[in-house]
Amino acid sequence: MSDLLRMGPLTWILVALVLFAVAVPALIFGPNLLRGMQEKRIRAHGLPATAVVTGMDETGRRFGIELVPELVIHFEVRAEGRPPWRGSITRIPGADDVRFFLPGRTFDVRYDPAHPERIAVMP
After folding, report:
1. pTM for the complete prediction?
2. pLDDT tens-digit series, residues 28-86
3. For the chain, domain boundaries
4. Is residue 107 within 8 Å of residue 121, measured between CB atoms?
5. Is residue 32 exposed (0-12), middle (13-18) or buried (19+ Cβ within 10 Å)?
6. Is beta strand 106-112 parallel, antiparallel or unpaired with respect to 115-121?
7. Are 71 and 90 in contact (CB under 8 A)?
8. pLDDT digits (tens, 9 = 90+) for 83-95
9. Residue from 49, 55, 54, 56 nearest 111 by CA
């Protein structure tokens, strides 16, 4: 601990810059990376269902030079032996994605039985 206290101001600035360089990308890209990993797990191990798009909302976050909005796409999910329920996915859409997720469109999905609101649209 005493070695940390003996570091000079230049060392502290360097440490702060390194932490900043690691923290900012983690905050920006981390949530999307985690969502992608979760969807991959649900596609591999989830249970099959169908889902109808009921709408979409902006999260308020924007990305890229064009400031593309992050969207939450809402679904009504149906699976055999269960009453319908609501699920959603969060996306930073490309230009075609907005038209792809129009309300009323039906998709094959998989859902996490432990958290049925978590779904993954099948390719």
Report:
1. 0.71
2. 555 666 777 888 999 999 999 999 999 999 988 887 777 888 889 999 999 999 999 99
3. 2-121
4. yes
5. middle
6. antiparallel
7. yes
8. 999 999 988 877 7
9. 49
CA distances from 47 to 71, 78, 114 (A): 24, 11, 10
Q: Chain centroid to CA 76: how far? A: 18
pLDDT at 22 (0 to 100): 60
Helices (H), the chain: 2-5, 9-45, 95-100
C-alpha torsion sign, points 102, 108, 110, 115: positive
Q: At 24, is the pLDDT very low, low, confident or very high (cuts 50, 70, 90)? A: low
DSSP 96: H
The first and second tokens of residue 65, run together, are 């030079």
